[in-house]
Amino acid sequence: MSEHEAEAAEAPAKATAKKAPAKKAAAKKTATKKAATAKKAPAKKTATAKKALAKKSPAKKAPTKKAPAAGTAAAKKAPAKKAASGSRPESQASKAKRAAQLNEALAEVYYYAHPELDFENPFELLVATVLSAQTTDLRVNQTTPALFAAYPTPEDMAAANPEELEELIRPTGFFRSKAKSLLGLSAALRDDHGGKVPGSIDELVKLPGVGRKTAFVVLGNAFGVPGLTVDTHFGRLVRRWKLTEQTDAVKVEQEIDDLLPESEWTMFSHRTIFHGRRICHSRKPACGACPIAELCPSYGEGETDPEKAKKLLKYEMGGQPGQRLKPPANYPGTPAPPLPSRDPGAESPTTGPGSGSGSDAAAGAAR
Description:
Helices cover 59% and strands 0% of the residues.
């Protein structure tokens, strides 16, 4: 083969060799385009999917977003509104109506309610009330006969030897502070009131050891001037009856004054105190034996079993201080008869255990 023929034979091979890289390049380019298309396609699909999810998500997420809101702000407000409507303050007219019902029911049970301190004149009642702070009326009634025999008038008591006076009243407790009050008020009665107990609240509260509580005991029972005696029993019961939420004695007095006629103030005090001493005790009220249970919004705070509740009852007739007596078969439906007035020659009637009406100053000293 000549040289010319050899070159001619190699020419097609070179052309083919040149075309082959071109085809490979084309194929590579095509593959690159496909890859690019494949990469773009998922991106587009993903974007489309995201858009679709974004359109659907608000509908699905809306309740979820509202739920937390309801569980936090809205949910917290809802119970508050419900509680507010459920605990809506009772109207004054409704309280007055309930107070009248309670007073009427107590009047039927304790028709014999009376001041349980023995006295024969305003001075004796004033002295006995001062002594009754932080002790029982029974203890005071056992102490006052000898006291009044020794010092029958304000002039006599004002001139008493302090140590002798203290010894006479020692059984009532806090005898030093009480003796100081008795000497002070007796001197004031002698010097400023001609030896007479004044019959007004303004004058009484100016006497040493005499506050509104003591003054109203004297006014209501020695002068017939209506007034509420807000002692520990009275305050406890009117709060249990939801007639007031006040704990300050003066505020309690003012709120209860507005619920009852003035003519009922003194007797409502007696009836309430009787009930507090005998049935509605501080620690263990005898709810199951309470004759006015159906009117009490706090029923259930104490013993509700009737038989167990009967054992908690306390009675004023007979017994010793603090002694629980066997309940009469007819009590509390038919109360005992009224106690007789004190006869110096007779045995002093007994009263139930519990705090007496009390001198404000002596009660403060005790606290």
